[in-house]
Write a structure and sequence with these properties.
Helix content is 28%, strand content 30%. It contains 12 helices and 22 strands. The strands form 5 sheets. Strands 10, 11, 12, 13, 14, 15, 16, 19 and 21 form a 9-stranded antiparallel beta sheet that branches. A 5-stranded parallel beta sheet has the order 3-2-1-4-5, with helices on both faces. The protein has a 4-stranded antiparallel beta sheet with strand order 6-9-7-8. Helix 3 runs parallel beside helix 4 and helix 4 (82-90) packs antiparallel against helix 5. It is globular, with a radius of gyration of 21 Å. Bound molecules: adenosine-5'-diphosphate. Adenosine-5'-diphosphate binds next to strand 7, strand 9, strand 10 and strand 15.
């Protein structure tokens, strides 16, 4: 895109969390100005961007007025006022990924209907309006137990998801429009980040394996490459390709999948933005997910997604029992380990399990990276 090299180009990023911060830092390598919209003027990206605008991304006027200041608009969260994005697009602003796609993806019910219509394997589902309606269906055996209930909108990091094993567990049900899904016997959870640029070039990052802290439902480790067979990687990559092609998607899409006990691959959900499961790409892949997003939305050739080295990414979470002004413990000891790359997001305050940073451990083998990551987990603590 010529504008990029001949003049000031203002890229708008909605939300200034860690993903927005790293995207802004990456954009500055290409001399792109970054404008951030976030309700918190202390948010991680505020100090790295060219300009910061305080505002609520669910408010029509805040999003619309912000969009009027920029040459191209992207985002790092899903919960955005879609009407404002659509109006900006109608008035000629480039918004990538496009508002209609974000609208589909921010609603897990619409996502599921899309997979069904395109024959993309995804766990069997039913849609419900309320908790009462689900209870009624359970009473009359219209739902097979166990099942997973997911609120259609607003959930993240497992908030808004419950597993119901038997009828007595109805008290755990969440209220609100929901997807009720068949409970998959999961052997592995993997993620593939795929990019598609405006002219339709597609590139997938290698599949990663996601290990969760099951009590908090937060990713504990991202392992790259995943310990999956070549043939499974091919199937998973083809699915990610199909989703972005079917949607004429432009931008970066994280596709989360399950591998069940029969080695069948199911698409769980997608996120149209940089993703936690792609942090490792900063150091371990030739092109980072952030650079790839910029290449996609500026219609530049997509970068190589070949691996440079094996890696394990761990989230640096707020230590339970500590809340308030942040203090890092064990930083220098952790940094003394070869291959340990520490990212601190700059959040001013910590609380239990808050994502305060991440660490990517590079090593010759996954085993070595894993044991170093375990060591870093023991050494490095976020306290107050
Ligand atoms: P979120 O958007 O909050 O991350 P997910 O839909 O990814 O929610 O669900 C969170 C976790 O719940 C998944 O990572 C997986 O471990 C589990 N889960 C979700 N759907 C199913 C399912 N159909 N069967 C079994 N486990 C599931």
């Amino acid at each position: 895109m010529e504008q990029l090299v001949i003049s000031d180009f203002n890229l708008g990023i909605i939300a200034g969390g860690q993903l927005g911060k790293i995207l802004a830092l990456t954009a500055s390598n290409w001399n792109i100005n970054t404008f951030i919209l976030d309700p918190d003027d202390q948010c991680p990206a505020s100090s790295c961007a060219t300009a910061f605008f305080k505002g609520n991304y669910l408010d029509f006027d805040d999003v619309y007025n912000f969009g009027k200041k920029v040459d191209l608009l992207t985002f790092e969260i899903e919960n955005i006022n879609i009407a404002a994005l659509k109006k900006l697009k109608a008035e000629g602003l480039k918004v990538y990924p496009e508002p209609e796609i974000l609208e589909l993806m921010k609603d897990k019910g619409l996502q599921k209907q899309f997979y069904l219509s395109q024959n993309i394997p995804s766990p069997h589902f039913q849609l419900f309006f309320s908790k009462a309606e689900i209870c009624e269906a359970m009473e009359s055996d219209k739902i097979q137990l166990p099942f997973v209930q997911k609120l259609r909108t607003g959930g993240y990091d497992g908030q808004g998801v419950v597993v119901i094993k038997n009828k007595n567990e109805y008290i755990k049900l969440l209220d609100g429009p929901s997807v009720v899904e068949h409970c998959v016997k999961i052997k592995k959870e993997i993620s593939i980040i795929v990019a598609r640029n405006i002219q339709g070039e597609i590139k997938c990052f290698p599949p990663v394996e996601m290990l969760f802290n099951t009590s908090e439902n937060i990713v504990e480790k991202i392992i790259c490459p995943a310990s999956t067979s070549e043939s499974m990687n091919t199937v998973a990559t083809e699915l990610a390709n199909r989703i972005v092609s079917d949607l004429n998607f432009v931008g970066l899409l994280a596709v989360e999948m399950f591998i069940d006990e029969q080695n069948k691959i199911w698409v769980n959900e997608v996120a149209p933005r940089p993703h936690n499961s792609g942090h490792h790409t900063i150091e371990s892949v030739i092109t980072s997910q952030y650079e790839q997003l910029l290449r996609a939305v500026f219609n530049l050739p997509l970068g190589s997604t070949n691996l440079k080295t094996a890696s394990v990414m761990i989230n640096l979470l707020g230590e339970p029992g500590f809340e308030g002004k942040v203090k890092y413990e064990g930083l220098s000891k952790a940094m003394s380990i070869e291959g340990v790359k520490i990212h601190l997001y700059g959040k001013k305050t910590t609380k239990a399990f808050r994502k305060m940073g991440h660490i990517t451990v590079l090593a010759n083998t996954i085993e070595e990276a894993k044991s170093k990551a375990d060591l870093v987990n023991q050494i490095l603590k976020v306290k107050s």
